[in-house]
Design a protein that fits this description.
Layout lengths: L2 E5 L8 H8 L5 E4 L12 H7 L6 E5 H6 L10 E3 L1 H10 L2 E5 L1
Parallel strand pairs: 1-2, 1-5, 2-3, 3-4
């Protein structure tokens, strides 16, 4: 069963990103929102970890949060989504796990 994992906390504040990455299955998806989009910063350890994820794991981020933080030089595999697409993603996966 494929799971969409949703992270909203900064990868620099705690270990949730690392814990999540260890549990991702081959057909899972990861959606970054809020402060979690800072994981996309070029040159960061968090960005390197995301780039090491298998290609079969989809990487998504809320476009509004990327824009609000003026992030650029994003990974090519990143799918930036708006809120309606976020809802659609939640319906596409068998389960949704929010890393609160």
């Amino acid at each position: 069963m494929a799971t969409l994992h949703i992270l909203s906390h900064s990868p620099f504040a705690d270990s949730r990103l690392g814990s999540c990455l260890r549990l991702l299955g081959p057909n899972d998806g990861l959606l970054l929102s809020g402060e979690a989009v800072y994981a996309l910063q070029p040159g960061s350890v968090a960005r390197q970890a995301l780039e090491l994820m298998p290609e079969s794991i989809a990487l998504h981020a809320l476009a509004e949060d990327i824009e609000a933080r003026a992030l650029t030089d994003l990974p090519l595999r990143l799918n930036a989504v708006d809120y309606p697409a976020f809802v659609e993603l939640c319906c596409r996966y068998d389960k949704v796990n929010s890393w609160i």
